[in-house]
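Exercise: predict the fold of this chain.
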Amino acid sequence: MTRPQGSAARELGLKRGEFDLAVRLGRIRTVAAPDGGRRRVPREEIERIREGEGFPETLRRQVRVVGTAEGAQLMGVPPTRFTRLARAGLLTPAKFYLNRYRTVVWLYLAEELREFADSPLHAPLLTGRAPDTMRARLSAGEDLRPRRWRGRHAGYLLGQSSDPWERAAAMATLLDPTHLVDLVENPYERAYLRQLRPEETWYGVPESPTARVVERILIADDPDEISWLRANLLLSLAEARLRRPAPRPATREEPAARAAVAKPTPAAAHTPGPAIPGPAAPVPAAPVPAAPESRPPGPHPGGPAPETAAPAPGRWRRLFTRRPSRRAADGRAEPPA
């Protein structure tokens, strides 16, 4: 038995945003819905979490996120140093949102920030001079926060995929569409990958300013990251093609096409179609009219010969009178007879 995600969030005492983040982090397991809708939560998973130690405070602490100011306070560093550490890729964002000015606001797991600050290996990064490599990257304007978030997001997508076609679609989600056209030449396979593209409720209305900003974060732009995604996409496609081919729309429309051919329209039912070659059928011979009975000249046997109708007056004159030609009518000389 499974429960919808909204009902599961209420039973676990989580807000909707907290519940979604817990699912992305793997704290709550979900399964595919039988009808293909949004994923659901098994009942035994809800019972497992509720029976855990320190519920519900432990679960809420695991999904608590903070911004730059609060994160810097937790780590005991100025906000400027916190931002430099995050831009250098040392801190991984858990989620983000766009404020009213469409500026990206990154949020981090409070539990991860505490662990980073408590590690002895990171003590020089919190107080001392930053390494030269880190300073060179920051001076060049690099910002690895989107890439670090995509790495976490890719892990979530692959964890939700149980089929090689779904894994290939997850990798294609993070690639520019031009890479998909380059790697997948079959149009049916590209259409199938787009159909299996994971739905993101936070993506916004397509083609909106918010969606364009989110797309710049979602699509990989680092060469090393793009190479990794392309390689994983090709591996997933090779496995998927061995399992089953991508569905073709023509196969689903074939029964309807056959029915349309078998049942002609009323207008076409009375229109003779073209002749179809086949075995020749015997054609009945057309009746031949009987030749008129010839009678010898002279008296008709058995009685007088039938009288021949006399020609109408002037008929012989019309037959033997020469009709003037067009040239004679024009005044030109007639050719000699």
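Check your answer against the key: The two ends are 115 Å apart (CA to CA).
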